[in-house]
Amino acid sequence: MTDQAPIPLRPSPAHMQVAFHRTELGPIMSLYGQMVAAGEWRDYGISCLKDLAVFSVFKRTAENPLYRIEKRPKLRSKQGQYSVVGMDGQILKRGNDLRVVLRVLERKLIRAVD
Predict the structure, then answer these.
(1) Which helix H or strand E contains 24, and what residues bound it?
(2) Are strands 43-48 and 53-58 parallel, antiparallel or unpaired?
(3) pTM for this prediction
(4) What is d(CA 84, CA 93) in angstroms, rounded to the nearest whole number?
(5) Nearest alpha carbon to residue 59 among 35, 43, 38
(6) Rounded CA gap, 48 and 54, in Å?
(7) pLDDT recorded at residue 94
(8) Which of 4, 13, 17, 96 could form a disulfide bond with 48, CB atoms 3.0-4.6 angstroms apart?
(9) What distance in Å separates the CA atoms of residue 83 and residue 95, rounded to the nearest whole number?
(10) Residue 68, class by beta-carbon neighbours within 10 Å (0-12 exposed, 13-18 middle, 19+ buried)?
(11) Bridge-based pairing state of the strands 67-71 and 82-86
């Protein structure tokens, strides 16, 4: 028999990743569906990293993302843990309420009808 280290019941802090919770993905996917229906967005990608989770939105798959919806829990008590970042890296909106932060993208759906 070989001596093996016991399997930890909880992941160690070194293996922890930030991810979007189901309640956070609901409003994001709802907005995504509206934008796909409007023909504005076509693809998305989700990245779960050590310090942040990113939901990237693409017009075409091979391009850079049009927008990134980021979750940074360490900024919860400062500027807010959610932010919407534009293609050029400019932060368009930041805050602790995800629905309020996503409104900056919902405005893109509102257009004047001729």
Answers:
(1) helix 22-37
(2) antiparallel
(3) 0.77
(4) 5
(5) 43
(6) 7
(7) 92
(8) 17
(9) 7
(10) buried
(11) antiparallel
pLDDT digits (tens, 9 = 90+) for 24-68: 899 999 999 988 888 888 889 988 989 889 999 998 766 788 899
The C-alpha atoms of residue 100 and residue 47 are separated, in whole angstroms, by 22
Q: Return phi, psi of residue 95, to 5°.
A: 175, 180
80: nearest Cα among 97, 100, 67: 97
Band (pLDDT 50/70/90 cuts) for residue 105 is confident
How many beta carbons lie within 10 A of that of residue 61, not counting itself? 9
Q: Are 85 and 10 in contact (CB under 8 A)?
A: no
CB-count exposure of residue 82 (10 Å: 0-12, 13-18, 19+): buried
* Under 8 Å between Cβ of 44 and 58: yes
Output the six-digit token pair for 16.
């922890």
58 SS3 class: strand
